[in-house]
Design a protein that fits this description.
5-stranded mixed beta sheet, binds dinuclear copper ion
Length: 159
């Protein structure tokens, strides 16, 4: 009888552990892992053509004397291209994708984010050094992934 009791205790303990680990997974995915970490905003990737912002992506005036750049990534290009922004002022990028996940990395800077279909990735950077930069897709997105580049022109003293 004692053996059976111990077996029962261990069975309950083992089941309890499994339930605890599973709940941990559900809590983590439900509350933390599913949403992008910083900026949560959705957009319908199938109707970007009629979206007031992303149907005509480009550079427009933003807060604090900076600019806001709306960018659509799509196999295998970025729109707009080239992108022209002022030096020394905040540049807020708003990225989305029309098809699959792409990367958006301004090579040689810390500007780096993912363009995810269905979501708007937003981040703000200030480019202190005027010049021409390469924007590269750094997420594998298909056969011509390696050709998916664009040009960023940082101009001194332009609005
Ligand atoms: Cu787009 Cu790789």
């Amino acid at each position: 009888m004692n053996v059976e009791l111990y077996e029962r205790i261990w069975m309950w303990a083992a089941s309890g552990l499994i339930v605890a680990f599973l709940s941990l997974i559900f809590v983590m995915t439900g509350l933390h892992a599913i949403t992008p970490p910083s900026h949560f905003e959705t957009v319908d990737p199938a109707s970007l053509a009629s979206n007031p912002e992303f149907s005509s992506p480009g550079v427009r005036p933003g807060p604090d004397g900076g600019v806001v750049v709306s960018v659509v990534a799509e196999m295998f290009d970025f729109n707009p291209n080239p992108i022209e922004v002022p030096a020394g002022r905040p540049v807020t990028f708003r990225l989305t994708s029309a098809d699959v996940i792409h990367g958006f990395e301004v090579v040689g800077t810390n500007a780096n984010a993912m363009a995810i279909p269905g979501y708007v990735s937003q981040f703000t950077v200030t480019f202190d050094h005027p010049g021409e930069y390469t924007i590269a897709c750094n997420e594998y997105c298909g056969l011509l992934h390696h050709n998916m580049v664009a040009k960023l022109i940082v101009k001194k003293g332009t609005p």
